Amino acid sequence: MAMNLEVRGISFRYGSITALDGVDLTVDAGEIVSIVGPNGSGKTTLLKCIDNILRPKSGVALIMGNDINKLSLKEISKTIGYVPQTSVRTIFPFTVFDLVLMGRKPYISWEVSKRDRRIVAETLDFLGISELAMRYVSELSGGEQQKVLLARALAQEPRVLLMDEPTSNLDIKHQLEVLSITKQMVKEKSLAVVMAIHDLNLACRFSDRIAMLKRGKLFAVGTPEEVLTEANIKEVYEVEVKVFKDDGRGYPYIVPLSAA
Amino acid sequence: MNTDNLVQNIEDIYSSSTRRKTLVIIGIITTDVALALVSLRLGALPITVRKIASVIISKTFPFLDNNSLTLFERVAVIDIRLPRIIMAIVCGIGFAATGTAMQGVLRNPLVSSMTLGLTQAAGFGAALAIVLDLGLIGGRYLITANSFLLCLVCLGFIYGIVRLRGASPETVILAGIAIGFLFSAMLSFMEYIASEEQIKELVFWLMGGIYIASWPILAFITPVISISTVVLWRHSWNLNIMSAGEEVARSLGINTEQVTRMCMVLSALITATIISFTGIIGFICLVAPHIARMIIGADHRFLFPASCAVGALLLLGADTISRTLIFPAEIPVGITTSLIGIPFFLYLIIRRRRLQWQ
Fold first, then answer.
1. Set of chain B residues whose Cβ sits within 8 Å of the Cβ of A72
2. Which residues are A241's β-sheet partners?
3. Contacts with B3 from chain A: Cβ below 8 Å
4. Cβ contacts (< 8 Å) between B241 and chain A: which residues?
5. To the nearest whole angstrom, how far is the Cα of A10 from the nearest Cα of chain B?
6. For a pLDDT cut of 70, what percent of chain B falls above it?
């Protein structure tokens, strides 16, 4: 059976700067793959290339075995959900329900059906933010906004979910909450998740596999234990770290020591 | 409460909020109609509602005419007041629709036809006609044809900017402001070389007015405005999603460049069609969408009709005051719209500022 997502040799340049150089990656249903790497290593660019927001210079992304270039914008939007990095920047006053309803756009021509309303309501319930339904998005805290963005992507009923730094603006509690919900969601709806993330310890704990990028090239890919070694991190981040085998719950734990 | 009930509950809350919005829109439209009736009564000669009704009935169904009406009453209602009122409503709708579409597509609440240089271009076109007597078409519609043409030049420029791949909303707005300054410099030059008589005429045109209203003009502008407005309204979902950001819009399958081009061209077309007849009335385009947004929220499916109804209300109200306040003289409608609209607008901003520009 075809993988949910398969990335073959994707390269991308911003002008003369190579941002991605022949990246390969496969992600199966029910799997979270984290993309780690220093700033500017191409994490966000990779996500955008997968979602056809940016057009790769070469290489191809396959969704459920289909070449993404051969799918219509609408078909792509029915299979890939994208959770952007920046906090919600709605210029105009939208309610949480309105914003999540936008995720139904691939299925709506004009009229909102009973099914659309139901899916939005169920998604809000699933993420535990039902009470916020009629609140204005801009009035919410960062953690709540992140859940709203997640809800919108889920309302698309995607097979693949791309998340760009889902925890970057959140406190510890909300980081754990958002990632736990993501993990639960992945199993329940058998999604394939690709997540760009900075926090290596969170990546260890919540991902099935990790892909490490260095200057647009795939440096290592595998389980957290295989990829997040002291040698790899020194090579890619130029940082001395100590990796402990077990954080008390069976996950590796990384303590940064000094910039190399 | 169990999950099913909770889910049903949210659905119900949302459904009742959309019903409420629909009712609000119907309410504003009813106010429009009421104001139109009041406005029909007002003028040099007060005419009763009964008389107005019988004029309209006898005009529509000539066989019902019982000859009880004076010629003056007929002319005042059919040839003077009615076209003017309809013109105010149609133009109000058009201005509001362009404001809503342009603010939505450029994701900026400060955009109006002024920001994109359209009004300045129209002003320069009129100046060419009035001062130099230059233009493609001579005669009665020289000023109109000229300002329409210059609006199209401005539109071509903006379209070119939008066509450049990767032109962000900020780039489009900056370019619009720049070309606006260019046209206003050329307008100033025209004023500099104009005679006193010409300046008088030009200043009067620039202040805007609906006194030009007539059935033939309505027959020209109404189809353009109504068709364009409906097409813009059909883009509501796209505008909703684009206001949440370019990347999200693309990931939801929207061809953002195409939507932007379409909305800009139609908005400019509506603006050019109106202001080439009426002169410069810039305020409604900026403000009607804001007032509507404060009443009804940001969902463009409801915002468009609400905004259009508010625009009609503003322009009709302002024009009625313009033509009746210091009768027999007229105050240019550009002045009255600002005089009644801006205090109201400021009041709304202060009272509901929470919802604005977050």
1. 253
2. A256
3. 125
4. 102, 105
5. 18
6. 95
Q: Is residue A117 part of a domain?
A: no
In total, how many domains does chain A have?
A: 1
Selecting from B108, B247, B357 the residue whose C-beta is nearest the C-beta of A82 gives B247
Which A-chain residues 33-72 have CB contacts (< 8 A) with chain B? 48, 51-53, 72
Calculate Rg over the CA atoms of chain A.
18
Give the minimum alpha-carbon distance from B9 to chain A in angstroms, rounded to a whole number.
9
The C-alpha angle with vertex A86 and arms to A81 and A89, in degrees rounded to 5, equals: 95
Q: Is ipTM over 0.90?
A: no
| A94 shares contact with chain B (CB less than 8 Å) | yes
CB contact under 8 A, B13 and A51: no
Domain contains A203: yes
Residue A120 lies in a domain: no
pLDDT value at position B356?
43
Domain containing A49 equals: 5-85+158-259
Mutate which: B4, B10, B291, vs A, most A CBs within 10 A: B10
Q: Which domains does chain B have, with CATH numbers?
A: 26-355 (1.10.3470.10)
Confidence band, pLDDT 50/70/90 cuts, at residue B358: very low
Q: Which pLDDT score is estimated for A88?
A: 57
pLDDT tens digits along B254-282? 998 889 889 999 999 999 999 989 988 87
* The pLDDT value given to residue B83: 93
Q: Which residues of B touch A92 (CB under 8 A)?
A: 104, 109, 243, 293, 298
Q: What are the chain B neighbours of A90 within 8 Å (beta carbons)?
A: 243-244, 298, 358
Q: Which residue of chain A comes nearest to B253, CA vs CA?
A: A73
Domain of A239: which CATH number? Answer: 3.40.50.300
